[in-house]
Specification:
The complex is a heterodimer. Chain A is α/β, with parallel strands linked by helices. Chain A folds into 2 domains: 220 residues, Alpha-Beta Complex (Aspartate Aminotransferase, domain 1); 241 residues, Type I PLP-dependent aspartate aminotransferase-like (Major domain) (Aspartate Aminotransferase, domain 2, 3-Layer(aba) Sandwich), CATH 3.40.640.10. In chain A, 35% of the residues lie in helices and 16% in strands. Chain A contains 15 helices and 18 strands. Chain A has a 7-stranded mixed beta sheet, sandwiched between helices. The two termini of chain A are 34 Å apart. By secondary structure, chain B is of the alpha/beta class. Chain B folds into 2 domains: 140 residues, Aspartate Aminotransferase, domain 1, CATH 3.90.1150.10; 230 residues, Aspartate Aminotransferase, domain 2 (3-Layer(aba) Sandwich), CATH 3.40.640. Chain B is 45% helix and 14% strand. Chain B contains 18 helices and 15 strands. In chain B, the strands form 3 sheets. Chain B has a 7-stranded mixed beta sheet with strand order 4-10-9-8-7-5-6, with helices on both faces. In chain B, strands 1-2-3-13 form a 4-stranded mixed beta sheet. In chain B, helix 10 links the parallel strand 7 and strand 8. Classes of the chains: A alpha/beta, B alpha/beta. Chains A and B meet through helix 3, helix 5, helix 6, helix 7 and helix 10 of A and helix 3, strand 1, helix 4, helix 5 and helix 6 of B.
Chain lengths: 551, 472
């Protein structure tokens, strides 16, 4: 027996719950107070490959995400692969220990041999035996602008990746599918570069003081006002490093006696910030609103563990786009939950600011929501603006409090002036305030490129994770050998890609990750796609068994 | 055999008849009890949620969180920053007034050096501004590799690693080596980034009194006794000492030779934080190891930020490859964060060039420090805290008024007085509630090579007048 299917939320908005024939459960009560009912299908990694989710009215356009399940044969082979590598790892360690094989690993000084060892042998097992074999796919040095095409420094290794030397040659015009250059502002000519040049000549390169002391420039104030206008919030504040923005400000907002609910796949900076704050941390399943709601209800009803005192505040940490999965946060549902349970929302838009939404204002713009609903909007300038640093935007009281109590403003130096100028110029361009339509064109190009790229890859038969609109495209590789092979084969075809394995991803779900940019032309994408298809056939990567209905 | 079985059955029935009554009754009761236990509901521990749905809803309705942030009063001393327009060089424009700069950590005067700016501009023309990626994913530029090589060569170590933010350098380096269960001995006056690094590492922290080697030795001896009780655990517990070359908060030097002796005696590793002493101490500016003549291989890790003498942004760690290479995969601020913008790295390389070409500037800087130290002696009501050759001194009140707030107000009025007379000073800022050992409020006086004798005289007399006028 179910209750009526609409409930009034705090703002009087109607929220249609997707009710579908609820039975009463064992105790005879019907769970009719939860916002989002338990659905018939499992939420993450569904057996069917696809979720087209409307949820009656909360979403203005279809929210299409897919995480196809790992084929069984592939999973078995992957585990076998890791097993073989581990056995060989032990064998090699044994040989190295007994001096049958030359040991390239740096060792402790003679004078300090009787100190407690600095590293435990097992910590580095993975590094020594698995990572070293395919190490040439990472830390590739570049010697040009990280734009749509880049120049790589050629490296050669004569001892199986233990040491590298530069041959002196440069691999030119490698198509760059790895840098976070969503709107193509990583350029050394044009409006932004000129403005940054002027600024360097006027202000110099560095600041040598913190914001509270002598490091607050007029350019910082201008930047903060511009960021606040861009986001649509009352006030904003900028910091010199994106990672540090999270790790230094979350402790200022939450403390002992507070609860932090953080998504499973949150970035290391959010996790570090939550740990440093000293609050209790509870993790909910990735992008799973039922899990989040259950945690919220349990937290409010039962209070703090053991003492049962009520929590001082509850902070929900989510990201706009998750960079390893390519998924977009279900923001309308999170905001509905936050309003019902009176929690605070911290949204980390590192990858989504500038990349999503018709105006480039991020995931709030993408869903057409009110920026005032998000309590703390955080983001970084590294990705879409081609600069460095982070920001936090929100109500004036919040920003005033951060101005006085954030660790970064008191102890860390402020942002370098040319970097601030680059952000100002690129943000004005995106907003259209510099008088050109360059910003609008780039936003449109990015979303076209994203749709085209994802569609073509899916049609080819690869398993692609994530939301249809996210410019981060993870392509599943699964097997450890394919990680190295994919990276190297793509480089042979003059395309620079990023491959990721354990521990950034679960052990059998290693992937290649492409970042689509507005600077990529259709020809570049076609070249890249042809090469990917070729390598996919060579390495047998086309695992997908489903054909997605076009929506 | 069937007959054998039947015969057993007959015997059983006979035994049944012959058994005493109480025996049968007891057996019967036991059997009934077992049947009851088998069929009754499983006994659950008292569930926490013996609340009904309605009660849960009420609790959810009633719960009111605290406001996200407590309100900040409008006249909070840190709310309104001083605004600087124009370059932060020797003459700096603060709040519209042009003043002599005694507040930016520009020790070697490289902030508006033309060569440094030109190199930065060349780099900007080649690479643009940002790197658009972390070091692992196409964020490593040849400039970064060059800077790391140059730093390692300058400090005469095997390897160096760069971070893109000064604060994050030591705060990422410490947790990469020291984990839960390890022991760290740290000086009480350690700066905030060291404290955050220690907090992130979750190790046992033991503070020893500032620059007090006997206190440190006492702690080490206590630890030795503990080890003897549990040798198996002691064999896997790593120990570290974290000290600074020149302390930011007290402007004095750590006694490095004694520390090295303690290191070998008690088998602890030393992490040295040289933000204030890199480019200041030592004949060639190599820091406190050169100053004392200590072999640099004896120090396990030297960390410094490039935001003081080097006049750039970011930080670095240097040491032996065995130690430094580990951070490339486990330093959080290195792996998970975008790399340093190449123009800032190019500026740092040029600054290193200048430092190597002319080692005389370090002697000049130290002379000026001594000069300033002497000129500030004898001001009524203020005492100079720091060694004569340190470039960032503190001026503290001789006698505190009793409350920190009024001390801060008095110092602020001294600074305002000086700003009016075109000498730019600043207060040393701390987060009152977060610091473990909060230093007393003070005025920070920074010495740079660009300050002339007249500037120093003017500043000293200005501070003297201010002290006389305000501290009567």
């Amino acid at each position: 027996m179910t209750e009526s299917s609409t409930i009034m939320l705090l703002n009087g908005e109607n929220c249609l719950r997707a009710v579908n024939g609820r039975k009463t459960d064992k105790n005879g009560f019907v769970k009719n107070h939860c916002l989002f009912q338990q659905q018939q299908q499992k939420y993450r990694r569904p057996k069917e490959n696809h979720n087209i989710w409307h949820n009656g009215g909360l979403y203005k356009k279809p929210f299409v995400e897919s995480f196809e399940e790992t084929p069984l044969l592939v999973a078995v082979l992957t585990y076998m692969g890791y097993g073989i590598l581990t056995i060989f790892g032990y064998l090699r360690d044994f040989l190295r220990n007994w001096k049958f094989e030359k040991c390239h690993v740096a060792t402790e000084r003679e004078e300090q041999k009787d100190f407690v060892p600095l590293y435990q042998d097992f910590e580095n097992f993975y590094t020594r035996n698995l990572y070293m074999r395919i190490r040439d796919n990472w830390n590739r040095p570049i010697c040009s602008v990280p734009g749509a095409k880049m120049d790589l420094v050629e490296r050669a290794t004569h001892d199986y990746n233990w040491t590298f030397e530069h041959t002196g040659k440069v691999v030119k015009d490698v198509i760059n599918m790895g840098s976070y250059n969503y709107l193509g502002f990583a350029e050394n000519t044009g409006l932004c570069a000129d403005a940054a040049t002027e600024c360097t000549v006027k202000y110099g390169v560095a600041v040598c003081s913190s914001r509270h002391e002598m490091g607050n420039f007029d350019i910082h104030e201008e930047l903060e006002q511009l960021v606040a206008r861009f986001l649509g919030v009352e006030s904003a504040m900028t910091f010199g490093m994106g990672f540090a923005t999270n790790s230094m400000n979350i402790p200022a907002l939450a403390g002992k006696g507070c609860l932090i609910l953080s998504d499973e796949l949150n970035h290391a900076s959010l996790v570090l910030g939550a740990r440093l704050s000293g609050s209790t941390i509870r993790v909910f399943k990735h992008n799973n609103m039922q899990s989040l709601e259950k945690l919220l209800r349990d937290a409010i009803v039962h209070g703090q563990p053991r003492t049962h005192r009520p929590w001082k505040k509850i902070l929900i940490l989510v990201e706009g786009i998750y960079s390893m999965e390519g998924s977009i946060v279900r923001l309308p549902e999170v905001i509905a939950l936050k309003k019902k349970y009176k929690a605070y929302l911290y949204l980390d838009e590192a990858h989504s600011i500038g990349a999503l939404g018709p105006g480039g204002r991020g995931v709030v713009d993408y869903f057409g929501l009110d920026p005032r609903d998000v309590d703390i909007m955080m983001g970084t300038f590294t990705k879409s603006f081609g600069a460095a640093g982070g920001y936090i935007g929100g109500k004036k009281e919040l920003i005033d409090y951060l101005r006085t109590h954030s660790h970064s403003t008191v102890y860390a130096t402020s942002m370098s002036p040319p970097v601030a100028q680059q952000i100002i110029t690129s943000m004005r361009c995106i907003m259209g305030e510099d008088g050109t339509t360059l910003g609008q064109e780039r936003l449109r190009k990015l979303s076209e490129n994203t749709t085209y790229f994802r569609k073509r890859l899916r049609d080819m038969g690869f398993i692609i994770y994530g939301n249809n609109d996210s410019p981060v495209v993870p392509l599943m590789l699964y097997m450890p050998a394919k990680i190295g092979a994919f990276g190297r084969e793509m480089l042979k075809r003059n395309i620079g890609t990023v491959v990721v394995g354990f521990p950034a991803t679960p052990i059998i779900e290693s992937r290649a990750r492409f970042c689509v940019s507005a600077a990529h032309t259709r020809e570049m994408l076609d070249t890249a796609l042809n090469a990917i298809s070729e390598v996919g056939d060579l390495l047998q990567l086309k695992y997908s068994r489903h054909r997605i209905p076009t929506s | 055999m069937a007959s054998g079985q039947q015969w057993v059955l007959v015997e059983m029935v006979q035994a049944f008849y012959e058994a005493p009554a109480y025996h049968l009754i007891l057996e019967g009761i036991l059997i009934l009890w077992i049947i009851r236990l088998l069929f009754s509901k499983t006994y659950k521990l008292q569930e926490r949620s013996d609340l009904t749905e309605k009660e849960k809803e009420e609790l959810i309705e009633e719960w009111q969180p605290e406001p996200l942030v407590p309100p900040v009063s409008k006249d909070h001393p840190s709310l309104n920053y001083d605004i600087v327009t124009g370059p932060p060089s020797h003459k700096i424009i603060v709040n519209g007034k042009e003043c002599i700069n005694f507040a930016s950590f520009n020790f070697l005067g490289l902030l508006d050096n033309e060569r440094v700016k030109q190199k930065a501009l060349t780099s900007l023309k080649k690479y643009g501004v940002g790197t658009c990626g972390p070091r692992g994913f196409y964020g490593t530029f040849d400039v970064h590799l060059e800077l790391e090589e140059r730093l390692a060569k300058f400090m005469r170590t095997e390897e160096a690693i760069i971070y893109s933010y000064g604060f994050a350098t030591i705060a990422s380096a410490i947790p990469a080596y020291s984990k839960r269960g390890d022991i760290v001995f740290v000086d009480e006056a350690a700066c905030f980034s060291i404290q955050k690094g220690l907090q992130a590492s979750r190790s046992f922290i033991k503070y020893f009194k500032h620059n007090d080697m006997e206190d440190l030795e006492r702690l080490l001896k206590e630890q030795e006794l503990e080890d003897q009780k549990n040798p198996r655990k002691a064999r896997v517990t790593r120990r570290f000492i974290v000290v600074e070359g020149i302390y930011l908060n007290t402007a004095d030097v750590c006694p490095l030779p004694e520390l090295v002796k303690l290191k070998y005696k008690y088998k602890v590793r030393i992490f040295l934080e040289e933000s204030m002493s890199f480019g200041v101490l030592g004949e060639h500016g190599r820091g406190v190891t050169e100053h004392f003549g200590v072999n640099i291989d004896d120090i396990d890790l030297i960390s410094a930020n490039m935001e003081n003498a080097v006049a750039s942004v970011g930080g670095f760690c240097c040491g032996r490859s065995f130690v430094i290479d580990h951070q490339r995969l486990s330093g959080q601020g290195y792996c998970f964060s975008a790399s340093l913008p190449p123009m800032l790295a190019a500026a740092a390389i040029e600054a290193l060039n200048i430092m190597e070409e002319d080692p005389n500037i370090f002697t000049v800087l130290r002379e000026k420090c001594k000069h300033v130290h002497k000129a500030l002696q004898g001001i009524p009501g203020l005492k100079v805290v720091g060694e004569p050759f340190t470039p960032a001194l503190h001026l503290q009140l001789d006698r505190s008024t009793g409350s920190r707030e009024s001390d801060v107000k008095i110092l602020r009025s001294i600074i305002d007085y000086c700003l009016d007379r075109q000498v730019a000073l600043t207060q040393a800022r701390y987060l009152d509630k977060e610091e473990r050992f909060l230093p007393p409020p003070s005025v920070r006086v920074v010495v740079t090579v660009e300050q002339t004798e007249e500037d120093i005289e003017k500043a000293a007399s200005c501070i003297r007048e201010a002290a006389v006028a305000i501290l009567k």
